[in-house]
V-type ATP synthase alpha chain
Amino acid sequence: MKQQGTIYGINGPIVYLKGKTQFQMSEMVYVGKMRLIGEIISLNNEMTTIQVYEETSGMKPGEPVYGTGQQMSVTLGPGILNNIFDGIERPLKTIEDQVGQYITKSVQVESLDTERKWPVHVTVELGQEVTGGMIIAEVQETKTIVHKSMIPPNIDGKVIEVVEDGDYTVVEPIVKIQQLDDTIVEIRLAQKWPIRIPRPVRRRHESSVPLITGQRVVDTLFPITKGGTAAIPGGFGTGKTMMQHQVAKYSDADIIVYIGCGERGNEMTEVLEDFSELEDPKSGNSLMERTVLIANTSNMPVAAREASIYTGVTLAEYYRDMGYDVAIMADSTSRWAEALRELSGRLEEMPAEEGFPAYLASRLATFYERAGLMQNLNESEGSVSIIGAVSPQGGDFSEPVTQNTKRFVRCFWGLDRQLANERHYPAVSWLNSYSLYVDDLSAWFRDNVSPDFINNRRQILEILHQESSLMDIVKLIGSDVLPDDQKLTIEIARVIRLGFLQQDAFHQEDTNVSLEKQAKMIEVILHLYRQCREMISMGMPMSLLLENQIFNRVVTIKYDVPNDRLDLLDQYLDDIDQFYNHIMATNA
Ligand code: ADP
Ligand code: MG
């Protein structure tokens, strides 16, 4: 390894070199005698600046810096899934084995196990013309996921050597390609890709398919597409992490990339334990078999936290390129932004709003823009959906991270402190949240759920909005003076809130609910609403209707009707009709 510079100054994770150096922008470097991993973040004739991804205490000016000639990259290959990495893709388990739980000194570890042999099935033949992105081999990476090894995006040529099907490590050559300029490249299961550069695709498609999460307030009211973006802003304890866990567990993505960014370490341990035990509803295997965790918790170096979201999205794009639907959870992007602020402060950059650097917005954009439904280089279709938690101080959504995130995401699932206090979970505010994907998804809901779905959804939202304005009056003068049709609106809104929007993550049936059940629950609620409206228009008082237990029975459908017994829901429609007939017959 060639020394290319000497440390001049150190400020926390930032290291300076004086004078002109041979490094390139974004080059990965080894810093100091300990050879800590760093990245060149600025470069001119007077000075070179390095961001160091490990703890720099003990390092001194005069120590050497070594170049690698490569951009800051991640290693892509089998072994990513069912694994837990730090922000620069070092496996935490291996690090722990070497230096214990706290990373206090430099550790040299490979991202992927270089000794493990994988059962490889080669899918190209000798003499075949191949282009970037083309699949060359398949490996059963975990019980759930078949890994597809691809020609790196920038390589074209002819296959001049292939191995037999068999067991290979990630560093053994699988095929040799002769390129047009006659240079020969060996392709292995493991390849590198720079984290800050999106992996190339053929084209971006508009997505018209939802990412189904099993969470009613999301799927029915504020749906996200496969390839879509969403933010979950909320104050401390309002349920951001819980919501990310629920989506990670139950959404119909093929692969989950879970980035724990600057939050408490034990939360990541929980995810790991939970996911190892929990069954994937689709495959019956452990959820970890389709999951990769990236943990850069609050006790770990701040620069690696900055890198962690790019590491995560690059891994996601890699599985997307294989044709999978990938969903990223980032918890929390606010802690990431704080890392950015701290680094910017050390660089003595001019601060903008609340001390964040002026490039906060563009950095957030480059992250969320990597989401999308794509036609890959190999013509398969895959998607990356990004769901980021935002944790503003004091739950104040006017601060810069929330506001800038809002510009780049198309779903906003705003968590409400008061709802959380009332233990209405998920505490997604139905008044302040939105999804800009509803129009894109209408046809899909019509064809795959029910022709009435979108219309019913709109009615539910209307009732909730009407309730909200009525409550202003009720607070002033009480509900007794309201006319009966408005009393009904308030009662049905209560049924919607308790019976539909509230969803208990700890209840075996309620934790994950199919779209079909969601749609039928809405149908029952709206049928009750329509029949009651009719009775009220015929002069029946609301007090009389409330004597019947039907309202409370509809509220508990979520617990009383098992997820595999949707036929029972028809009984509720009949019971509502009987209730109607009974009232009309005895009070006409
Ligand atoms: P945050 O990440 O916003 O600080 P958490 O996700 O840790 O908040 O949630 C705090 C607590 O709220 C959880 O420990 C849990 O008790 C409760 N909670 C949140 N969402 C739900 C839910 N859907 N069902 C039941 N309890 C919930
Ligand atoms: Mg949290």
Q: What stands out?
A: The longest strand covers residues 381-390. Residues 240-241, 263, 331 surround magnesium ion (ligand 2) (CB under 6 Å). The radius of gyration is 28 Å.
